[in-house]
Write a structure and sequence with these properties.
By secondary structure, the protein is an alpha+beta fold. It contains 10 helices and 12 strands. Bound molecules: adenosine-5'-diphosphate.
């Protein structure tokens, strides 16, 4: 009996020990599973963060739309775009201001195919809204479905790229071509008209008239070649601006002298006075002498051209100051009415005929060449005018782009 009881006790003890061991093992097993889960979640979180960092590195705005059709993710560029409001959890209709965005999303959902479109939107309908004062905004909209395994929550992505800068420069180029063709068409049509007259039977026999026609044709041919020359200079300056320059130090005073020599005939014939005593002797500029000559030539020639009456005073000054080199070209002529001042640097802009004499030659490109050339040197130009008293073009060339080597 005692033996049997002992065996039973031992058996109970063994079973108890085995049971306790099993529970312990089970507990350890669950702990290990928990640990694996934590490690796995941490790895997932790190992976998610890495993906987000990658997507935040995109300069394009990226949105993800989930199975319920709500925005479930927006990268930094997208969040910046809608800085004022939270887009997460919103429907695309609530997020995107123009119906064309929604149409593209629906089309992509329906056809399960990417949709790529270029949109030009008035500012208020653009995602950037009134924050950007750029008239219209141009966007590349790229919507594509996502496979379920790519991102468990999202069914499609919407990518937005701001193309406004490219759109605007394309627009400027188109305007330039349109304006240039228009400006060239007028003199060419005149030349063609006179040529037709000359080719008429017997027209060449009247030598006096033929000579007059040829004179007019020659004047308009000059205009065509000046426009073409100016356009070439502008396009050279625009094709990489600074790269188009050949930068070397040169003495500014001698550049002024060269320009005045080239304009001497006009200065003498108009009995004008050009005072360049305010140009510091020995002042050196590091830049492209060809363009600086063109800048001074255009500014001084403009002053003379716009004021053919005798007795015009033109003053040229150039001084080295703490913030850089200041170059001013001023005249006391007819001036530029204030309503025209903001536009005179635009291509083909000429102040209207009641201000300028219609016989004054010009392409309307001179000042835009001046501005481009100064900007290509890292400088700025501005104009002020009190008609009849002083019209002044002021150039500032910042100190770091210049060598201010005062000799003598
Ligand atoms: P243009 O070839 O007609 O001279 P610009 O671009 O050089 O073209 O100048 C644009 C317009 O600015 C000129 O048509 C002229 O009306 C005006 N302008 C420029 N400089 C002067 C000046 N010194 N005095 C008066 N008007 C000027």
């Amino acid at each position: 009996m005692t033996i049997e009881l002992s065996i039973l006790c031992i058996a109970i003890l063994i079973i108890g020990w085995l049971w306790a061991d099993r529970i312990k093992k089970q507990k350890r097993f669950y702990q290990e599973i928990q640990q694996v889960k934590v490690i796995h979640n941490e790895a997932l979180e790190a992976e998610r963060k890495r993906h987000e960092l990658l997507l935040d590195g995109l300069s394009d705005a990226l949105f993800l739309v989930d199975q319920q059709g709500l925005v479930c993710y927006a990268n930094i560029a997208a969040r910046k775009m809608f800085a004022e409001r939270n887009v997460i959890g919103q429907s695309p209709q609530a997020v995107f201001p123009d119906a064309r965005f929604i149409e593209a999303i629906h089309q992509c959902e329906h056809n399960k195919q990417p949709v790529v479109q270029r949109l030009v939107l008035p500012q208020q309908l653009s995602p950037l809204g009134a924050r950007e004062n750029r008239g219209v905004n141009a966007w590349l909209l790229d919507v594509a479905p996502l496979p379920p395994e790519a991102y468990p929550q999202a069914k499609l992505r919407v990518l937005l790229r701001d193309l406004t800068a490219e759109f605007q420069s394309e627009q400027v180029r188109k305007d330039f071509v349109a304006n240039a063709s228009h400006e060239l068409r007028t003199p060419l049509a005149i030349i063609q008209g006179y040529l037709e007259n000359l080719l008429e039977a017997g027209a060449l026999r009247d030598q006096q008239q033929a000579a007059r026609f040829l004179g007019i044709m020659s004047k308009h041919t000059d205009r065509v070649s000046r426009i073409v020359e100016d356009m070439l200079v502008i396009s050279r300056l625009e094709s990489g601006e600074a790269a188009a320059l050949s930068i070397e130090p040169f003495e500014f005073f001698s550049c002024v002298q060269d320009v005045l020599e080239r304009l001497e005939h006009l200065i003498v014939s108009q009995q004008a006075q050009v005072d360049f005593g305010g140009v510091e002797r020995g002042l050196m500029i590091t830049g492209d002498r060809f363009y600086w000559t063109q800048v001074l030539f255009n500014l001084i020639e403009n002053a003379l051209k716009q004021n053919p009456r005798p007795g015009l005073h033109v003053t040229v000054t150039a001084t080295a100051q703490a913030d850089g080199i200041h170059v001013d070209v001023a005249d006391d002529g007819i001036g530029i009415p204030s309503s025209h001042l903001p536009f005179v640097f635009k291509r083909f802009y000429r102040v209207d005929q009641n201000h300028t004499n219609s016989s004054i030659k010009g392409t309307g490109l001179g000042l835009s060449i001046v501005k481009r050339a100064i900007e290509a040197h890292g400088g700025q130009i501005s104009v002020s005018s009190t008609p009849g008293r002083e019209t002044k073009f002021s150039i500032l060339l910042p100190v770091d782009r210049t060598v201010m080597d005062q000799v003598g």
